[in-house]
Specification:
Blueprint: E1 2-7, E2 13-17, H1 19-26, E3 38-41, E4 47-48, E5 51-58, H2 65-74, E6 75-78, H3 95-103, H4 106-126, E7 128-129, E8 133-134, H5 148-163, H6 172-178, H7 180-188, H8 193-216, H9 223-241, H10 243-249, H11 257-270, H12 272-277, H13 281-292, H14 294-297, H15 304-309, H16 327-333, H17 340-366, H18 375-384, H19 404-416, H20 425-439, H21 461-471, H22 480-487, H23 493-506, H24 521-552, H25 557-577, E9 585-589, E10 597-606, H26 607-610, H27 625-642, E11 648-651, H28 654-664, E12 671-676, H29 681-687, E13 699-701, E14 710-715, E15 718-723, E16 730-735, E17 739-745, E18 754-759, E19 765-778, E20 784-788
Parallel strand pairs: 9-17, 11-20, 12-15
Antiparallel strand pairs: 1-5, 2-6, 3-5, 4-5, 7-8, 10-19, 12-16, 13-14, 14-15, 16-20, 17-19, 18-19
Helix pairs in contact: 1-2, 3-4, 4-6, 4-7, 5-8, 7-8, 8-9, 8-11, 9-10, 9-13, 11-17, 17-18, 17-21, 19-21, 19-23, 21-24, 23-24, 25-27
């Protein structure tokens, strides 16, 4: 390969390329006749020993010195430009506000807040284009490693951590600070979801630092500080759930409102974690009520008729990704008309109930009793949907969990449409757990490597079962809504199978005592029996429904035909690789009047293995081609056993056997010695490593003869083949030329096999048979039969 190089100083890099003359020179290159040319510009080995490799050429006609001189000057080298790091450019926006905060000058602080808000929003608006697009948030070549908006909100969250410290002597500074996210979002006039997400995360940070500040003081607040803190908490709640937020998230059912409402709901449930971690009882009560009132505050309307007519209990956000015309919706609507507003209302009510239970289970699984917060009381309020603050009777609250079947049904709701995708409701709940874990972990030290456990919603099912045991009652039955959903085929076969496995894992051993704060030990010992009993009823119902699906399912004929096609395609290669069968001439024949021998492989399988739409084939394809080959070999051995050998000799030791074989294979024709049983197997294997004995028996090493049953040496030209798992006690020496044709009947569809399924007395069990018709031609009897004595 020819290289074009240029001398450069240490540290120099390519700074520019004169593209027009560069392309002009490339067009002058010519390939060597009849060969493929290859050109590599600036190959990876780069600078070495003061030289920069500009180009590597292969199969190119030699270039002139003038061409080289011009080409080198097309590529400009020099010192790399020192790039300015602009990641912290938005930090300058906060300079005036920081100075005023240090000087404790509230009027200048307010002016600084207004100025930084105007500066950021005016810059961001000036780079808007199209619909909700912004050059600064898309083009990274400007020098930002993060987008302009990301950088600003990062600095804003750092600013919150500093301004909250002023609460120790005044709440005005932080009161002004917490309103920045709302002012920024309004003034940018953005409607894209990315800006909404940044706004909500910054507002959430306000709540986080406000709780951290109180916990960080390490002691009780003064009366003034407590009043200030409470006032700031209430003002934050107003920002989070007030009129301003509802105008941003939009009216339910309006364009883009669904995604905003769902994101707001997920962050609303997360509000509890910073409060619990900080052991702040008052903010816990506020955060709890915000969560329970979320449905009411977002102006949802109850649709009683649709709740009654539809399978409304099982309507989850998974259905947002499905079109109303898809079969899953048809089953859920139960023949009624689709109504978007009703669907969204029911969906968000169910989602809120799921998140209430998620939070209750998370508190049980991750928190021990605390000094200021009564966690048992908080969990009770969550599952009963009871507010801490007395309000009027017109608040719309989601239903309470009053018995164990309510919690079991909630698990079924999450799992019934769980497709294990990143957009599923299951995944969304798991992501919320991951975020809550980030607020419930020790502070990180930069530079250290930390490990942890990736938790999903399924990891909380054990905590859910504790709550169900707490609510368990005698003689509970499977709920009507579950029975109706099963009758309406709302649960797929695979979801039933998964749910049965989950319910079985939820059962608890009554003999193992419980130690915790959610339920007393005596109540646990009593209720766990009730809980196990109702779980058995659910498992029985789902098992019966699963069995009905299997019985009603049709046999997957396409899968059976695919098995025939697979074996037809793989068999010729398998025969050619076998030590014995490769000596046969493999042919296919469609003549019906031949003396075909029917061979088959029966396999006892459950019907769900061959049922259409029910089998996921986790066990692999069977029968495999190796099983077919083994069956054909078995027939070959049978044919050789029953044939009368030309000569029978009794042998008592290996030496006699080897001498006889050496004598009869001296003509150097192809022979095969088949040794049945394990009489001489060990001695034969050791013979490989005894070269001194080889000449006496005409043995020579033949590595190509190695196989799963053959030994890596021959006697003259006789292959040694071991059949160790045979009950026979003799050896057969046969001529390889006696193996004639191996014919298989070709069916009209072009395959060599026919696979079918037949059920027996049990409708859930049956036999899958793969049969083929063959004719094995052996033209001569064995040369000699050696009887082992």
């Amino acid at each position: 390969m020819l290289h074009v190089k240029s001398n450069v100083s240490k540290g120099d890099v390519v700074t520019d390329i004169y593209i027009r003359p560069f392309l002009f020179l490339l067009r002058r290159l010519e390939a060597v006749d009849g060969q493929d040319a290859e050109i590599i510009i600036l190959p990876s080995f780069g600078v070495r020993s003061g030289e920069l490799t500009l180009m590597s050429l292969k199969n190119i006609k030699p270039v002139s010195g003038l061409w080289r001189w011009l080409f080198i000057r097309c590529i400009v080298t020099g010192r790399p430009e020192k790039k300015r790091d602009l990641d912290d450019i938005t930090f300058d926006f906060f300079g005036e506000a920081y100075d005023a905060l240090n000087d404790k000058n509230i009027s200048v602080f307010r002016a600084g807040i207004e100025r930084l808000t105007d500066t950021y929003t005016s810059i961001k608006r000036s780079y808007n284009y199209g619909v909700d697009k912004n050059y600064l948030d898309e083009v990274k070549e400007s020098g930002f490693s993060h987008t302009f908006s990301d950088s600003f909100h990062y600095e804003l969250r750092k600013f919150f951590r500093e301004s909250v410290k002023s609460t120790e002597y005044s709440g005005e500074y932080f009161r002004e600070s917490m309103a920045i996210p709302l002012h920024v979002y309004r003034k940018t006039q953005s409607t894209c979801f990315t800006d909404f997400r940044q706004f909500l995360l910054s507002l959430f940070r306000v709540w986080h630092v406000l709780n951290d500040w109180k916990a960080g003081l390490g002691g009780p607040l003064s009366a003034s500080q407590e009043l200030t803190h409470q006032a700031l908490i209430r003002e934050f709640i107003g920002l989070w759930e007030g009129w301003s937020m509802t105008t941003i998230t939009g009216k339910p059912g309006s364009e883009d409102s669904t995604g905003r409402l769902m994101y707001h709901l997920h962050n609303t449930v997360r509000l509890l974690i910073p409060s619990v971690v900080a052991d702040n009882a008052s903010s816990v009560r506020y955060a709890h009520d915000v969560l329970c009132l979320w449905f009411n505050q977002n102006r949802f309307t109850r649709y009683w008729e649709e709740e009654y007519r539809w399978h409304s209990f099982f309507l989850t956000p998974d259905y947002l990704s499905l079109k109303e015309t898809e079969p899953q919706w048809d089953m859920l609507l139960r023949g009624s008309m689709y109504k978007k507003d009703a669907a969204l209302s029911i969906m968000f009510a169910n989602a809120l109930s799921d998140l209430r239970l998620l939070m209750a289970g998370y508190l049980i699984a991750h928190f021990e009793p605390q000094k200021n917060i009564d966690l048992a009381d908080l969990v009770n309020h969550l599952i009963m949907s009871e507010l801490y603050e007395d309000r009027d009777t017109h608040d719309t609250l989601t239903p309470a969990f009053r018995c164990s079947v309510d919690i079991i049904d909630m698990i079924l709701r999450i799992e019934h449409c769980n497709l294990h995708t990143n957009t599923s409701w299951y995944s969304g709940l798991s992501e919320t757990i991951e975020v809550m874990n980030s607020y419930n972990e020790r502070p990180y030290i930069p530079g250290r490597v930390y490990t942890g456990v990736n938790e999903d919603i399924g990891s909380l099912y054990g905590a859910f079962s504790l709550l169900a045991i707490k609510l368990a009652r005698p003689a509970e039955q499977v709920t009507q809504r579950v029975n109706e959903a099963l009758a309406g085929r709302l649960f797929s076969y695979f979801s039933k199978d998964r749910i049965i496995s989950i319910l079985e894992r939820l059962k608890r051993d009554p003999s193992v005592p419980y130690e915790g704060y959610i339920i007393s030990e005596a109540d646990y010992a009593t209720n766990v029996v009730f809980f196990n009993d109702v779980l058995d009823k659910y498992i029985d119902v789902f098992n019966r429904s699963k069995t009905a699906d299997i019985v009603a399912a049709e046999v997957d004929q396409e899968r059976l035909r695919n098995t025939d096609t697979r074996l037809t395609n793989e068999l010729p290669g398998a025969l050619s690789e076998d030590v014995l069968l490769k000596y046969f001439t493999f042919t296919q024949n469609s003549e019906c009047d031949r003396n075909w021998l029917v061979r088959y492989i029966p396999v006892g399988v459950s019907k769900d293995y061959v049922a259409r739409d029910l089998n996921q084939n986790v066990y692999g394809d069977f029968p495999s081609v190796s099983e077919v080959k083994r069956n054909i070999l078995h027939r070959l051995h049978y044919e050789l056993w029953k044939s009368q050998a030309k000569l029978t000799i009794e042998v008592n030791n290996l030496e006699t056997l080897l001498m006889e074989v050496a004598q009869r294979s001296a003509d150097q024709n192809n022979y095969i010695l088949m040794i049945y049983g394990s009489r001489f197997s060990e001695e034969l294997r050791e013979l490989v490593y005894q070269p001194a004995r080889h000449d006496a028996f005409s043995i020579h090493v033949d590595v190509s003869a190695r196989g799963s049953r053959s030994l890596p040496f021959r006697i003259n030209n006789c292959l040694i083949y071991l059949v160790l798992n045979s009950e026979q006690k003799f050896s057969l020496m046969v001529s390889a030329e006696s193996f004639g044709e191996l014919r298989l009947f070709r069916y009209p569809d072009g395959t060599l096999f026919n696979t079918f399924y037949r059920s027996n007395g049990d409708p859930l069990e049956g036999v899958m048979k793969t049969l083929w018709e063959m004719e094995m031609e052996i033209t001569d009897t064995p040369v000699v039969r050696f009887e082992h004595r």
